[in-house]
Amino acid sequence: MNGADTAWIIVATALVLFMTLPGLALFYGGLVRARNVLSVFMHCFSIACLMSILWLVAGYSIAFGPSESNLWGGLDKAFLNGVDAESLAGTLPEVLFFAFQMTFAIITPALIVGAYVERIGFGFVMTFSALWMLLCYAPVAHWIWGGGILSDGGILGEVGVRDFAGGIVVHETAGLAALIIAVILGPRRNRTTPPHSPGFVMIGAAMLWVGWFGFNGGSQLAADGGAAMAMTVTHLSAATASLTWALWEKIRFGKASMVGLVTGTIAGLASITPASGFVSPVQALIIGGVAGILCQEAVYVIRNVLKIDDTLDVFAVHGVGGIFGTIMIALFGLGTWTAQLGGLVIVGVFTTVVTIVLVKVVALITPLRVDAETETNGLDLSVHGERAYDISS
């Protein structure tokens, strides 16, 4: 065990959890109507709790178990069987590696929340998220990070997929799942209501930015120069994408908005995620600069051309950003085109199939969408019996 590495990953684990609670919850919560903000908080918090337990039960073993299968890790480490405080994963206590990866398993299904807010059934959210994490996220994590079919020496060649912190494992899977659910679910009854609290959005985005240092820097799994470089390029990409998003918004619409500025931040962070362990600061500027414009155009296409109500633009920002960053690794010569594009296609097809099947199956168990009256009145009071703001008290 290395004490410095351990200390850093303990901090990184806390930072990644901070991304979901409260960062993502505030970012998403500020973007919806006031009558639905508590439902968003409820989704994010409940998913964090449920995924933590399921990661212990089976998720960790499926993703990082000792199975010789290239498709999944088996169940030998279910309930952390055989793992104690003395067990090691590299230079880290294995229980710490478990906890760090658990925070990724929390935020990935939580990202999908942004696609279906304001009209989804709570029972569906919990059931789908549980099954999707175990049957989609965990196997893909094994394929790329756990020595599976897409890693070095796998089906794509000696040089496997390069995905440092989750451009494919986290952002492509969550983005595609979000898009599919949005299509099946259908649009909101009222798509024109503006974000109820841009201030919440900014605070949440700022928390995500800080937490992303643990997300990307922690993925080095060591306290060294690689972690420092990953943090540096992460910051530079986020800063650049924020500005290019705002500038492009000003050019197109005449005004640069706060919500747009910080959405650009998230686009830059998602885009640098797969490449953060490989690129230089200048390459990070390029990735961020393009991401701010590319993801904004993706928002326009999905909303206005395809007419898909991906409510909080999960696919346009996270999905497109993660895919773009994954491709840039090959463009900069830091990975092979075969592995990067092949990984995107294989994981994309797998995610699509699993997500469609799960949505159809879970919808047979619990309602997919709330009724029209509940949607009109808001999920906070109708589903959870609470209001976010009581101005009469």
Would you give an account of this structure?
69% of the residues lie in helices and 1% in strands. With 393 residues, it is mainly α. It has one domain (3-384): Ammonium transporter fold. A two-stranded antiparallel sheet has the order 1-2. Helix 7 (225-253) runs antiparallel to helix 8. The termini are far apart. One of its GO terms (molecular function) is ammonium channel activity.
Question: What are the main properties of this structure?
Answer:
single chain; 393 residues; mainly alpha; Ammonium transporter fold; two-stranded antiparallel ribbon; 2 strands; 69% helix; 1% strand; globular
Summary?
The chain has 393 residues and is an all-alpha fold. The chain has 13 helices and two strands, in the order H-H-E-E-H-H-H-H-H-H-H-H-H-H-H.
Topology:
Blueprint: H1 3-31, H2 37-64, E1 88-89, E2 92-93, H3 94-116, H4 122-145, H5 167-185, H6 198-217, H7 225-253, H8 258-272, H9 281-305, H10 314-331, H11 337-365, H12 372-377, H13 379-384
Antiparallel strand pairs: 1-2
CATH superfamily, please? Ammonium transporter AmtB like domains
pLDDT < 50 runs, ≥5 residues: none
Structural class: mainly alpha
Alpha-carbon distance between the two ends? 54 Å
- What is the number of helices? 13
Widest beta sheet: strand line-up: 1-2
User: How does the overall form come out from the CA principal axes?
Assistant: globular
CATH architecture classification name = Orthogonal Bundle
Largest sheet: 2 strands, antiparallel
Organism: Ruegeria halocynthiae
Subcellular location: Cell membrane; Membrane
InterPro entries: Ammonium/urea_transptr, Ammonium_transpt, Ammonium_transpt_CS, NH4_transpt_AmtB-like_dom
Keywords: Ammonia transport, Membrane, Transmembrane, Transmembrane helix, Transport
